[in-house]
Amino acid sequence: MKKIALLIFFIFISCNNHRIDTKMNIEKKISKEKVIENIAVLRKCGFYEEFHNLTDTEVFNKLHSNRIKEYSKMFKKPYDPGMNIDEFDLACLDKHKMIYMDLESDVCA
Fold it and tell me: CA distances (Å), 28 to each of 22, 68, 96, in order?
């Protein structure tokens, strides 16, 4: 009986672990300046060629307005998803160029 009680006790405390870092659940904020900097780097790599006559800030504004249109259409009401996106998601917004990352490149078969 003691073994069962200890087992239940250990299961209970493992499920309610207060030592878990709650910061993992907080979304990382990416500043507008950092996103514009990432746009500049991606443009040097050949992304967003259709916006070649725009500045990086204008590309940011264009991408943001496109995201608002797409999300508003999806939700059938005005919606602003923001531009708190990392480099990979930013690269995925290009309609003509693709980015491919093999996350398992170090795995040996």
Answer: 13, 21, 28
What is the rounded distance in angstroms from the CA atom of residue 61 to the CA atom of residue 93? 13
Taking the mean position of all CA atoms in its chain, how far away is CA 26?
13
The one-letter amino acid code at 38 reads N
Distance of CA 14 to the CA centre of its chain: 30
- Residue 75: both structure tokens together: 């939700």
Q: Read off the tokens for 2.
A: 């003691």
* This model's pTM is above 0.70: no
CB atoms under 10 Å from CB of 48, counted, come to: 22
For the stretch 28-87, pLDDT in tens is: 788 999 999 999 999 999 999 999 999 999 999 999 999 999 999 999 999 999 999 988
Burial of 39 (0-12, 13-18, 19+ CB in 10 A): buried
